[in-house]
Design goal:
Layout (H helix, E strand, L loop, with lengths): L9 H13 L3 H13 L3 H12 L7 H13 L3 H13 L7 H13 L3 H22 L4 H19 L3 H11 L9 H17 L3 H10 L1 H5 L2
Helix pairs in contact: 1-2, 2-3, 3-4, 4-5, 5-6, 5-7, 6-7, 7-8, 7-9, 8-9, 9-10, 10-11
Amino acid sequence: SNNNNASISAEECYQNAISAKNNSNNSDYIEWLKKVAQKGSLEAYLALGQYYNGNNAAQDYAEAIKWFYKGANKGSDACAVNLGFMYAYGHGTDVDHNKAMSYFEVPAKAGNHRAQFGMGYCNYHRMVQLQNKYKAITEGSLRCYNEAKRWLSYLAEKGDANAQYYLGVVYNYTEFSSESDRALIEKSYEWLDKARKQGHKAANDYINRFGIYYWRGY
């Protein structure tokens, strides 16, 4: 590499990064991406975050968070959504559903499907946490139930298997709704079955765990 890299445009650096990636030269790929990032490129922040978040030898969640955070701070929805999932899943940090939702909310309202799933997923987990903590339905857990149902329903209707699975699980928390248990369990099964038919393993396991008598209401 030559010494006048500073004079190379962000576009050239990015092209060099892509060609290094295509040649499976990861160290050059990262080196060029970091040069683009130094020029304030949101695209580079996202690519670096994804690389360190990826399933590769260089996986480093703390490093991924650092790059996603830079991008999110500069207004990149894609970085914000990725950062949200780091907190939602506890990758490189403690699980923090509220913090995750603070990154999901704006992109979710703007129509980003991954962020919408994140809102549903986090509200579901918060609902369960609050229920386990207070051993009763609280205003907070009820709000999470309704929010989880709202976001997940939207995506489940669009055919998202993950959303169908979580929506099915949410409906099975029958105590949160004034509808009859029978009606709720039917809805729960309907969504779980849709996810299962798309090959969603967790949906299949969930159905089997309760057993067919439960779902049929014998």
